Amino acid sequence: MGRYDRNMNMLSREENERLRNFKVCVVGCGGLGGYVIEMLGRLGIGYITAVDMDVFEETNLNRQILSNVNVIGKYKAMEAKERMKLVNPDVFINPVVEKFDIENGERILKGHDLAVDALDNIETRFVLQDICEKLNIPLVHGAIGGWFGQVTTIFPGDRALDVLYKQKVKKGIEKELGNPSFTPALVASIQVSEVLKVLLNRGEVLRKEVLYIDTYSQEYHKIKL
Fold it and tell me: Domain 2-224 maps to which CATH number in 3.40.50.300, 3.40.228.10, 3.10.20.580, 3.40.50.720?
């Protein structure tokens, strides 16, 4: 249990033991998803499904924790599994090298306690929200762009993405603003804290409100949805 000693006294020993029984699905293994998987694994979440069809490219090296010069051209989901063997071999990583869509989404998500949105396109986010609602699975959404980020926690029926993305465009502003190393790490950290609270039913979560993060001016705002 020494691995988790620093989780105490934030968590009780019983709570920490419970974490190994949860199944979390992380959809997207890039900037956000890589950090989310890393932190969930270090917490001791017992089963993590990592979904991503992409391979690493040189442009990923500035911000994606799962990337390094030796894995260029390799599948991100598979590297998540290899990484966790080094970080916490007690955690099982289920790599899914597929594009998450309406055809396979229910199969991928079924049986999980919670899903994490670490996607980079809005169209697929809506598919994820729909399937989570159908399967009665909470969803922790995160998005980044340049200096900025946002996080909200969506319970079935909340339809928070309908409010956040009213125009339903395919891509967010990240292509225009770029993404540095620190924004995905920060937003992923907040997502993981939301995951922990939902799973353990502790504290207040960002339900029906969104946390907007501006690291340029270091302003953080919670806005009701």
Answer: 3.40.50.720
